[in-house]
Predict the structure.
Amino acid sequence: MEPLVSVIVVNWNGLKFLDDCLSSLERQTWRNKEVILVDNGSGDGSAELIRRWADRMPETKAIFLPGNAGFCEANNLAFAKARGEWIALLNNDAVAEPGWIEELAKRGDPAGRIGMLGGKILFAGKEGIIDKAGHLIYWDGQNRGRGTMEKDIGQYDTEEEILWPDGCAALYHRRVFEETGGFDRSFFAYGDDADLGMRARLLGWKAWYVPSAVVHHRHSATAGAYSSRKIMLVERNRLLLAIKSFPLRLLVANPFWSARRFAWHAYAALKHQGAAGQFVSAQGWGLLLLILFWSHLSAARILPAALVKRQKIQKTRKLSHREMLELLRRFQIDLRQLTFRD
């Protein structure tokens, strides 16, 4: 019998996307599923749409929060109510092809510690352009989707190990959530899947890429690609990830690796390329520097709590420091690709 899959969709003001997203779940070939919809205090009428979908789709629960608790907390609350052996996450601005759950679930192997799975995520509205096919990471904790902005010509059509799946569309065994404690609510949003993936990796879990599990994603449709708050959270959260999960000698070298990345971002911005180039062209250097200061100030405020979490993570890890460094080396992103490709 098919194991039960609990599909969690977190929504915040996603009225214009929700019908497409939830319709794609209704069309899934994997029938043994429940859907948990979490609304983060939306003010655009999407809560009413969620109520209608909860009545329409069998085995659907709806959770309505009074305000925006963030992606992390909303998913944790949904997981507490989930009954499934497997937990699928799908962004409200994503549309899954009918076999998405089935293709992922067939490859899961909790006995072999393959408990994180992700498929091929394509940009919606950009024919054949890859959003993510797994993730890569830089030495200071900044990470990016593998294959981002590449034309899909079959270069990622092989099933293989990945570092972690993207939280936009992923499948996790429930023991991954139980052993890690789920998402770190202090992240709020962005980089949360990286943090969860790294902590799961340290506990010996593996991640697997299934290219036949396809999702179409309207990237950053909710928050905006160059939202100041999003940039702050991305920069802050990569630092928190490193503090919690990186080997000590790599953590000590973090300022060096970050300075090197910032220098490449500045060079790309001068060339009007990459995310930094796009932001500077629209908003200017002053705001970008202010956001970087904001991100590090925010990280400093929650540093004590992050260090306490680090102690627990390092005490319970199954991977040695050498094994973790080798893992990061295997899935290292090229710095030019990280800074010049948007």
Q: What stands out?
A: The longest helix spans residues 228-245.
